[in-house]
Structure formats: C-alpha cells, structure tokens
C-alpha cells in the first residue's frame, strides 16, 4: 500500500467513527466491518443487469438474438462498448440522488464491489489500462465537494488493481443538466466542453466511468475527443443505465 492509499484508508476509518457507513438503499447504519455492503432485504430491491444485453451500450434487451437496443440501433457511438451494473429504476433512483447530491460518498464502496465482481474479467479482456472518471466542471465540483464519478473510479481501482487518473480529461465549461434535453440538445450542450491531456497517449485502452448512462452523449463526446489523440479504444462502465430519449 502506497502512502496516498494509506492516508486515504486511515482517513476513511476515522470518518467512519464519526459518520458510520450506511446502507445505500435504506440509508440506515451498517457495521463498519460491513462497509460497502447493503442490507439483504434492501439488496432485493435493486435490479442488477444480467442476461442478454445490447452489444454496444450494455442495456438489457429482450433476448439474445437482439444485438442492439433501440437507442443504439438508431445511431453510431464513438466508444467501443459499454456496461452497466444496475437498471436506473425503482429504489436506486433515490440512492443515486443521495450519492450525487447528499455527500453519500460511502455508497461508492458498494457500487464498486458489485461492479468489480461482475466486470473485472471483462475489464481484463478488453485490456483496460486506466480508469478515467467523467469530469465535473471545476467550480461545480468545488461547490459540491466531490465528483461522484471520481469517487466511484477510486473505489473501482482499489478493487481491480487498474490505476485511475483524474487529470487526463477535464471539463472546460459548465453545462446544463442533460436529463431534460433531447439528443440534439445534449450534443450541442456538450460541444467543446472537454479537454484531453496529451498525457493520455501513454494509454491504448481506456475505461471511462460515470454514475448514470442514458443516451451516451457524454461518453460519445469524450470518446470522440480522446480517440483523436491516438488512443486505440475507449470503453464505458456506469453504475446505472437508464432509458435514453
């Protein structure tokens, strides 16, 4: 364990004494030694993605004969392939809201644990060399205090051994929330919103992580910029996948 990781682990333990970890679903306290876990009854309320999925974005499809979901059948994506851990429906909507806006950073341990269990083999197969979180605009992140995608990336890195970096892709301007925009508006909203560091050329295969995937506009915009640097492929992993517009 490096110095940075040791400091993080000690800080995490100290914070847990003051702010005990909570179940990501019901938000009730769980034992410190069970941090990253969820109450068994609450776990049943989450819809983990299994079975046949879209070969592009990872969204569930009706049967294995269907290669692409309705959204991916209509458009081309710049990223190679995407995966998701949970469906964005039911109780997890409130979980994700708290994770994003209510400083429930401890939820990332649970998300990363499930993601690592389900997708570590896939990450190794695609040759992911670095995990990159979808960036927030610096001023917005300073106001919130953290970037939920970055917290998830850090926890995922701890469980998979794949390094993560937050300095490879940055957001150069603030953008409107994507959820109320149609596909065309989303693309315009994200135009010229990201900067890619030249240091990214050290890597050939990149895993981009975020909290929620809907239409893929954010992933596509970043992937398009990254691929122009000479990176071979970019993949996507999100905590949740929701229906696109």
TrEMBL record:
<protein>
    <submittedName>
        <fullName>ComF family protein</fullName>
    </submittedName>
</protein>
<dbReference type="InterPro" id="IPR000836">
    <property type="entry name" value="PRTase_dom"/>
</dbReference>
<dbReference type="InterPro" id="IPR029057">
    <property type="entry name" value="PRTase-like"/>
</dbReference>
<feature type="domain" description="Double zinc ribbon">
    <location>
        <begin position="15"/>
        <end position="72"/>
    </location>
</feature>
<dbReference type="Pfam" id="PF18912">
    <property type="entry name" value="DZR_2"/>
</dbReference>
<dbReference type="InterPro" id="IPR044005">
    <property type="entry name" value="DZR_2"/>
</dbReference>
<dbReference type="InterPro" id="IPR051910">
    <property type="entry name" value="ComF/GntX_DNA_util-trans"/>
</dbReference>
<comment type="similarity">
    <text>Belongs to the ComF/GntX family.</text>
</comment>
């Amino acid at each position: 364990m490096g110095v940075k990781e040791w400091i993080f682990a000690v800080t995490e333990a100290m914070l847990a004494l003051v702010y005990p970890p909570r179940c990501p679903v019901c938000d009730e306290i769980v034992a410190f030694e069970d941090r990253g876990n969820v109450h068994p009854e609450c776990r049943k309320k989450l819809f983990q993605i299994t079975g046949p999925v879209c070969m592009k974005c990872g969204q569930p499809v009706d049967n294995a004969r269907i290669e692409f979901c309705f959204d991916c059948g209509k458009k081309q994506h710049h990223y190679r392939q995407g995966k998701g851990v949970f469906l964005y429906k039911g109780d997890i909507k409130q979980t994700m809201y708290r994770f994003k806006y209510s400083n429930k950073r401890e939820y990332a341990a649970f998300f990363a644990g499930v993601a690592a269990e389900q997708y570590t083999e896939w990450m190794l197969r695609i040759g992911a060399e670095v995990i990159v979180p979808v960036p927030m605009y610096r001023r917005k992140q300073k106001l919130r205090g953290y970037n939920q995608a970055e917290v998830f990336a850090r926890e995922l890195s701890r469980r998979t051994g794949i390094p993560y970096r937050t300095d490879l892709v940055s957001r150069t301007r603030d953008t409107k929330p994507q959820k109320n925009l149609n596909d065309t508006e989303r693309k315009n909203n994200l135009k010229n919103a990201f900067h890619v560091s030249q240091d990214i050329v050290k890597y050939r295969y990149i895993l981009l992580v975020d909290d929620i995937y809907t239409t893929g506009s954010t992933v596509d915009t970043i992937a398009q910029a990254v691929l122009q640097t000479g990176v071979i492929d970019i993949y996507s992993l999100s905590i949740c996948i929701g229906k696109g517009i």
